[in-house]
Design goal:
The protein is α+β, with helices and mostly antiparallel strands. The chain has a single domain, classed as Winged helix-like DNA-binding domain superfamily/Winged helix DNA-binding domain (Arc Repressor Mutant, subunit A), CATH 1.10.10.10. Helices cover 59% and strands 17% of the residues. The chain is built from 5 helices and 3 strands, in the order ααβααββα. A hairpin with a 2-residue loop joins strand 2 and strand 3.
Amino acid sequence: MIPSQMLKGTLEGCILKVISSNETYGYEISQALQKYGFQDISEGTIYPLLLRLEKNGLVTTKYRASPLGPKRKYFQISSEGIIALESFFSNWKELENAVNQLFQSRGQKHE
């Protein structure tokens, strides 16, 4: 299980990535994240992030009828969201590279 503190800074970018594939709603986003190994990410965690993404103009929304009950709010990535996603991924690769270099440096002591 990934500790929540480690997820905190990356979850928005990961949600944007899920939304970038196709227009989707909260429960589907939660299921997609679980499919990729993000266990125990509840809709209660996802919805506040979706609202922030919407408020910041990174996603657009529309309501659609659902065959199983009330209307669903669907999310689609905006052009600003695509830019933010590209920036997130670039920053992630830089961080990944730095962490990998650190852990691959054998026997080097840093004080």
